[in-house]
Design goal:
Blueprint: E1 9-12, H1 16-32, E2 38-39, E3 43-46, H2 49-54, H3 56-70, E4 74-84, E5 90-93, E6 103-116, E7 119-122, E8 131-133, E9 139-144, E10 148-151, E11 154-168
Antiparallel strand pairs: 1-9, 2-3, 3-4, 4-11, 5-10, 6-9, 6-11, 7-8, 7-10
């Protein structure tokens, strides 16, 4: 059904201290890296190389978890931070690394007074039925990059997520 991963997984991978580190990275990044943050219609995005350097610990944990659920070894394809503001959303899509059998990991880092901003998954591509994937701060959802997914429009508040794309090692 899904290339590279047969179902959707959800787990808390990071401690409160690790989540606090990510929040600080967002805060410092928005203040000091103005040139690296792109504003994409209510979504702020950074994928600067220094972000990956700052997140090696998180990447190792995510790769270890991905290996435990798939019995494959993984390599980093991309990692970035997204901050959604009112009006921000992601239309239904699949991730560009799906042709390599990749997987996507989304960690909810922070939310404040959030209305909307839900991850949605379309498990059956023949229907228009979408499933909301509720996440608590600190939880990570893992799914095949070929899964059609999106984020509902943020009506109020904001959400911050760590997005990691992994490809099978050796492919």
């Amino acid at each position: 059904m899904f290339a590279g991963l047969q179902k959707i997984y959800k787990k808390r991978l990071f401690s409160d201290d690790e989540i606090s580190y990510l929040v600080d990275l967002f805060d410092k990044g928005l203040e000091t890296q103005n040139g690296t943050w792109q504003n994409l219609s209510g979504i702020f995005k950074t994928e600067a190389p220094q972000i990956a350097d700052s997140l090696q610990h998180f990447i190792k944990k995510q790769k270890k978890y991905a290996t435990s659920i798939t019995n494959k070894n993984w390599r980093l394809r991309d990692i970035f931070l997204l901050e959604y503001h009112p009006g921000g959303k992601a239309n239904l899509h699949y991730d560009i690394h799906s042709e390599h059998g990749g997987i996507s990991l989304i960690t909810l880092v922070e939310q404040e007074d959030l209305v909307g901003g839900d991850i949605i998954i379309r498990e059956d591509q023949c229907t228009d039925i979408d499933t909301k994937i509720p996440l608590d701060v600190g939880e990570t959802v893992v799914y095949s990059a070929s899964v059609i997914h999106g984020v509902t429009k943020v009506e109020s508040g904001f959400r911050r997520v760590l997005v990691t794309w992994l490809d099978p090692r050796g492919e």
